[in-house]
Amino acid sequence: MQKMLRVIANTLKGGVKINGSRVVVSARSFADLTPQASFDIKRCDLHRLDEGPSVQTVLTREDGLRYYRTMQTLRRMELKADQLYKQKIIRGFCHLYDGQEACAVGIEAGISPTDHLITAYRAHGYTYTRGVPVKEIMAELTGRRGGVAKGKGGSMHMYAKNFYGGNGIVGAQVPLGAGVALACQYQGKNEVCVTLYGDGAANQGQIFEAFNMAALWKLPCIFICENNKYGMGTSVERASASTDYYKRGDYIPGLRVDGMDVLSVREATRFAADYCRSGKGPIIMELQTYRYHGHSMSDPGVSYRTREEIQEVRSKNDPITMLKDCMISRNLASLDEIKDIDAKVRKEIEEAAQFATSDPEPPLEDLCKHIFYNDAPLEVRGTHPWMRLKSIS
Predict the structure, then answer these.
(1) pLDDT band at residue 5, thresholds of 50, 70 and 90?
(2) What percent of the chain has pLDDT over 90?
(3) How far apart, in whole angstroms, are the C-alpha atoms of residue 231 and residue 234?
(4) What is the secondary structure of 41-94 as a DSSP string?
(5) Which run of H or E residues covers position 39?
(6) Sheet (strand 193-198) strand order
(7) In angstroms, rounded to a whole number, what is the distance separating the alpha carbons of residues 77 and 350?
(8) How far apart are CA 206 and CA 271, in angstroms?
């Protein structure tokens, strides 16, 4: 097969005629590219574990291109959200994820779609990796009827199958995630729940209560702290007496992972999922990552850190650039392919933004719908005491 592809490629090097016109075909064909390559990855810091994830992994060309496209989609989607927010088309709270793409993509690559995931309000990336189209995410941000939550949730409240959404109360999703893990254990389906929170939520008391219950009942829960170095206007060093978040479970084993490397995150997540599925109970992962925007769109993000710091991370440790460079240097992809993916992603994001700004807003009569999951319709008082709306599911 490889030989046949090379013959075809060599035949096409001079170009082919279509309807009498000569079309130039790139001299480099897919047959020249490597189907897979081995990579060394950074060793994880361990807590209460004798061994951790492997320090070597294999990346296939197919997986690498998929990871790159997904991360580039997340990046472009968040940059478009930034633009729409500044144009006052997106209103309310909006917490962007650009810089942290390797976390979402690596986690999804390490678990199954039948596994479960719950996160805080920085949720756009996970909404996409859980299978929601970009246009539904963008439409939800602009409060339109075609949004993933019918325009009622906005930036902080998006949901999908086996994805229990962005949650607005700091840290409150962690005990909910432990509850989902309890359901996984109870139903005996060998599934796990990935429960995410940020470094800013790591000092919440309810998180330690959830740790305790999960450890007592050996729940299949992967607690993941996305440590992006800053809470709401505060560095981790100013907010936490101990910044070793992977040790915070004390009696629960932990891993500290390079959250800017999608392969490191993937291997650590696979390790953690296998640990939970084996019946050993919960495990904690700390992903050391970085966000380029401020805490939210109301936070410029440069009053407590310098622009030079942000630029240095962008230039030396950007997750998308690092994956692209690795793939090209190891002959897993060509620069032309990468450029083609970039162009297609930009087109997809522009079309999604067009939909998000042209789709109708939900009508007033939809205000009280979906209050209950499947109960009979009931009357709900609406925008004034004399107005009553039907609530249907």
Answers:
(1) very low
(2) 82
(3) 5
(4) -PPPEEES-S--S-SEEEEEHHHHHHHHHHHHHHHHHHHHHHHHHHTTSS-S--
(5) strand 36-40
(6) 45-47, 254-258, 283-288, 221-227, 193-198, 116-118
(7) 9
(8) 26
Q: Burial, 54: exposed, middle or buried (Cβ in 10 Å; 0-12, 13-18, 19+)?
A: middle
Token pair 């829960």: residue: 221
Q: What is the pLDDT of residue 16?
A: 42
Burial letters 58-83, b for 16+ CB under 10 A, else e: ebebebbbebbbbbbbbbbbbebbbe
| Count, residues in the chain | 393
Concatenated DSSP letters of 123-179: -HHHHHHTT--HHHHHHHHTT-TTSTTTTSSGGG---BTTB----SSTTTHHHHHHH
**What's the pLDDT band for 365 if we cut at 50, 70, 90?**
confident
Neighbours of 159 (CB within 10 A): 18
Q: How far apart are CA 296 and CA 59, in angstroms?
A: 34
The helix/strand/coil state of 208 is helix
Give the pTM.
Answer: 0.89
Strands 254-258 and 45-47: antiparallel
- Residue 21, pLDDT > 50, answer no
- Give the pLDDT score at 369: 81
H or E element, residue 321? helix 319-329
CA distance 102 to 193: 19
CA separation for the pair 103, 262 (Å, rounded) = 7
SS3 186: helix
pLDDT digits (tens, 9 = 90+) for 208-227: 999 999 999 999 999 999 99
